[in-house]
Design brief:
This protein is an alpha/beta fold and 215 residues long. 49% of the residues lie in helices and 18% in strands. Bound molecules: BIS(adenosine)-5'-pentaphosphate (AP5).
Length: 215
C-alpha cells in the first residue's frame, strides 16, 4: 500500500483534485473520511448517528470512530495503486494511529501534499460549492460550474449544497483546522514528507504538478 496524504483547510480543493486525478489517470484510489462519514449518516448507521452532530457543527468526529472506519477499510483493501487520503489524518492522535496501522500492514506514507489557499478564497469556494447527490462530484457555482445548472456533468445527478457549508459552520471548520490539524504540517515537514502546493491555481495545472511530484 502506497499512501499519499492530502492536507489543507476546508475548501482548499483536496476532494476536487483527488477526484480529478482518479478520473483522468485511473492510477489513484481516493479515500475521503468526510465522504465515508456522509455515507454512514445517509445510511443511518450507528457510526452515522454518532458523527452527524459533530459534522453539522463543523467539529471533528472523535478520533476513535475515525480510526475504526479507516482500519476497517484497510483490512478489506489489497491495493497496488497509490491511495490518496483526503481529510485524514486530522489530529496528531490520528496521525500516530495511522502510522501504527500502516506499520502493521507493512506500508508507509510516500508523501504529504499541503494545499495552501488564502482564507478569503476558502470562504468564497465553500459558499459556492455544489455536490452531486449521486456520485459525489464537486462543482462551484462560478469557479467550476456544471455544464447544465443543478445537474452533474458526470452522471446527470442532482446537485446540492452540503449542510456544513453555511457561513457560521464554515468559520468554525476553518478555526478547528487551525487548532487541531495545522500541527500536522510541522510533523510531516520534520520527516521530510511535506510538499507545499499553491491550491489557488487552476485544477489542470495543480493536478499536473501533483503528478510530477508523485512520479
Ligand atoms: P470533509 O468532507 O473532509 O471536509 P473538509 O476537510 O472541511 O474539506 P472540504 O470537503 O470542505 O474541502 P476540500 O478541500 O475537499 O475542497 P473541495 O475540493 O470540495 O469533512 C467534513 C466533516 O467530516 C468535518 O467537518 C468533520 O466533522 C468530519 N470529518 C471528516 N474527516 C474527519 C477526520 N479525519 N477526523 C474527524 N472528523 C472528520 O473544493 C471546495 C470548492 O472549491 C468546490 O466548490 C470546488 O469546486 C472549488 N475548487 C476546488 N479546487 C479549485 C480550484 N483549483 N480552483 C477553483 N475552485 C476550486
Amino acid at each position: 500500500m502506497n499512501i499519499v496524504i492530502l492536507l489543507g483547510p476546508p475548501g482548499s480543493g483536496k476532494g476536487t483534485v483527488s477526484e480529478h486525478l482518479c478520473r483522468k489517470q485511473h492510477g489513484y484510489v481516493h479515500w475521503a473520511t468526510g465522504d465515508m462519514l456522509r455515507r454512514e449518516v445517509a445510511r443511518g448507521s450507528a457510526v452515522g448517528e454518532e458523527a452527524k452532530g459533530y459534522m453539522k457543527a463543523g467539529e471533528l468526529v472523535p478520533d476513535g470512530t475515525i480510526i475504526r472506519i479507516v482500519e476497517a477499510r484497510m483490512e478489506t483493501m489489497d491495493c497496488d495503486r497509490p491511495i490518496l487520503f483526503d481529510g485524514f489524518p486530522r489530529t496528531l492522535r490520528q496521525a500516530e494511529l495511522l502510522e501504527d496501522s500502516l506499520a502493521r500492514h507493512g506500508a508507509g506514507i510516500a508523501a504529504v501534499l499541503l494545499l495552501e489557499v488564502q482564507p478569503a478564497v476558502l470562504i468564497q469556494r465553500l459558499g459556492g460549492r455544489w455536490v452531486c447527490q449521486d456520485c459525489g462530484a464537486v462543482f462551484h457555482v462560478t469557479n467550476i460550474p456544471p455544464k447544465v445548472e443543478g445537474m452533474c456533468d458526470h452522471c446527470g445527478g442532482k446537485l446540492q449544497q452540503r449542510k456544513d457549508d453555511k457561513p457560521t459552520t464554515i468559520n468554525n471548520r476553518l478555526e478547528v483546522y487551525t487548532q487541531k490539524t495545522e500541527a500536522l504540517i510541522a510533523r510531516y515537514e520534520a520527516r521530510g514528507l511535506l510538499k507545499r502546493l499553491r491550491g489557488d491555481q487552476g485544477l489542470e495545472k495543480l493536478a499536473e504538478k501533483i503528478n510530477i511530484l508523485l512520479a
